[in-house]
Design goal:
The chain has 248 residues and is α+β, with helices and mostly antiparallel strands. It contains six helices and ten strands. The chain has helices at 40-48, 63-69, 91-99, 121-125, 146-156, 182-196, and strands at residues 16-18, 32-34, 82-88, 104-112, 132-139, 164-165, 168-169, 175-179, 206-209, 214-215. A six-stranded mixed sheet has the order 9-8-3-5-4-10, covered by helices on one side. The longest helix is centred in the C-terminal third of the chain and has 15 residues, at 182-196.
Length: 248
């Protein structure tokens, strides 16, 4: 038997193509993907399949690396300040929501709860490192209670969707409260129980001790306040209630 073969025309690509979560078939991409002919096979395989959890794990982990990543956050807040970490989906919009809270003195986006030491954004997007996109909030407890931060956290996302917020799908987008003190843990659990009574579905938010925090790349920091990809700066004024445009 003769097999009929069909020639398939492969379109040419420019050297780089700017892709956003809203324009790419898969939601985990906020960076430029190279389409140089020598590397297109590897790039596409990694970006389309590995980041969905299939294929060969690209980040390499050693026991010593994992012990560091799973250790406590060894940074210290400013005198008289406290830290809290929250995961509520894409950290761009979450950070802006906390920037607007009176009494919050600093915010920083990054990666935590994973097993890889010094992960990059690309590492986290593979879905194999167990990191969560988090916002580390520094706040003055005399001006801002932890309970008020919890209110912002619950209002900012859907805590009933596992590893997903809207079109953003992956373990890095999971819902989580990561505490530094026993008082924060107690408040978080009590707050979750109250929220559960308001929900028709089970809350899947994890409540765990804060672990080592890895600051995300500079372009992620205060992303929406700096204008995002379109240059439309969004207000960080305390008490601002303007809608947060997540990709503005």
């Amino acid at each position: 038997m003769l097999l009929k073969t069909t020639a398939i025309a492969i379109p040419s690509f420019s050297s780089t193509l700017s892709l956003s979560k809203s324009s790419f078939p898969f939601p985990n991409h906020r960076f430029l993907v190279n389409f140089n002919p020598p590397t297109i096979k590897t790039s596409v395989r990694m970006n389309w399949f590995t980041k969905l959890g299939f294929g060969t794990r690209s980040p390499t982990e050693s026991p010593s690396d994992a012990s560091i990543a799973q250790g406590p956050d060894d940074d210290s807040p400013a005198p008289g300040q406290e830290f809290a970490q929250f995961g509520a989906g894409c950290f761009w919009g979450v950070e802006l929501a906390f920037q607007r809270v009176p009494g919050v003195t600093r915010t920083e986006v990054g990666y935590s709860q994973g097993y890889l030491h010094n992960p990059s954004y690309e590492d986290v997007c593979t879905g194999t490192t167990n990191h969560s996109e988090v916002v580390r909030v520094q706040y003055d407890p005399k001006e801002c209670s932890f309970d008020s931060l919890l209110d912002v956290f619950w209002a900012r996302h859907d805590p009933t969707t596992l590893n997903r917020q809207g079109n953003d799908v992956g373990t890095q987008y999971r819902s989580g409260i990561y505490f530094y003190t026993e008082e924060q843990e107690k408040a978080a659990r009590e707050s979750r129980d109250k929220q559960q009574k308001l929900q028709n579905r089970k809350i899947v938010t994890e409540i765990l001790p804060a672990k080592k925090f890895y600051s995300a790349e500079e372009y992620h920091q205060q992303y929406l306040a700096k204008g995002g990809r379109f240059g439309f700066k969004q207000s960080t004024e305390k008490g601002c209630n303007d809608p947060i445009r997540c990709y503005g």
